[in-house]
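Record minuted for completeness.

…
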Amino acid sequence: MAKKRRVPLARSVKTIPIARRKSKVSLAMFGKACRKGETFQAFLDSLPNILAAKELRECVDAIIRARRRSKPVIAAIGGHVVKCGLNRVIIDLMRRGVITALAMNGATSIHDFEIALAGKTSEDVQEGLNRGTFGMAEETGAMMNDALAAGDASGFGAGWAIGFYILEHRLPHRDASLLAQAVRLRLPATVHIAIGTDTIHQHPQADGRILGQMTMNDFMLFTDVVANLGGGGVMLNIGSAVILPEVFLKALNIARNAGIRVTNFTTATFDMMVQYRAMQNVVRRPVAAGGRGYYIIGHHEIMIPLLSRAIIERL
């Protein structure tokens, strides 16, 4: 007796009309071609309303809403941001009242100080390491440690100590210094130091007690700023992979431990690749109780001017 021929499963599938299928992309979301001479706003409007372009718009909207509600917009900045030549872009946002607080790691403060002092920064690490001269610029080590010691005596944190020193000593390029301009604008500016990670810790003037006290002062100040994020504030992590995401998470936890309801705010990381702590400690965990987090990937020297200009168009 012949066996009944089996019908392949692929011949028995059921189909549905495309009109009934849910689609994630539609023509209405597509980008538009730009014309020569159009405005920057026209360029923004021409971007697809998809993925990172959509998230960039949403991030800009959150920043504008935060300022209209008088909520903080914190910019936490890694050293690469200074080395990409973005100080003047960030200072402009500070002067416009968009960025209301500044945070950085120790390396960022060193690059910022060297820009103020010499108009240049960033050395060849490999070459210096081979010779044992990496991070041994005399003026940087001596002056920054002096600034921290003077700030310790005045009760400052590290950020204001360095910024005040730059202004007080009238360093030649002080107008391009993030910390100096934060002091001039009376904005919270904090430096979060991990002892042993920064080149100025190699210098004989470095004092561990002062370094620890100054960065602890700034951690307390930063926690007070973070405590006000709830209800519409924005935390921007720009290029810090480890230190600032960790500091932010602890500051947020302290505020919540004190009974402050810090929810319904926006976080965003701008970086060139996905970093574990930036994703978990900035974009995901802090807003799990309410809020929205974004991770926008791209080169800082392109993305931060783009973000800045998009904000300015909305002001």
Q: What stands out?
A: The two ends are 83 Å apart (CA to CA). The mean pLDDT is 95.
